[in-house]
Amino acid sequence: MDALFVVGVRFGSIKSFDEKNLYITRRNNETVVPLNTITSIRLASNGGVGNDIRGTYAVFIIDYDSNGLSRETEICVYRRQKDNFNLFKERVQYYNPSVEIRNWSTSLDGLIRLFRRGRK
Questions:
Q1: Reduced to 3 states, what is the DSSP secondary structure of residue 114?
Q2: How many domains are there within the chain?
């Protein structure tokens, strides 16, 4: 593995990545997410910025496809891990050039996503 860049302390999971996959480890289960299945990386719509004993962090939401279903996971990126997170975003963009990467959010993001969804 290249980098252990996020510890999701609030949710009890550890996220790491290598050349081709994102790994989400929770308890004794590991979920492997190929980087080419990640559809978006976006700052959480609640502002996504906080401060705790480890320092300042930003919360990002990663959307991905798993067996035809849309899934998401939240990650906390601390300031000292920012270079690793930037490397992660570059790798995702390499494997999926159409990925949406947003380092900003608005209070209207939920409504925008609701109306963007295709109707069946």
A1: helix
A2: 1
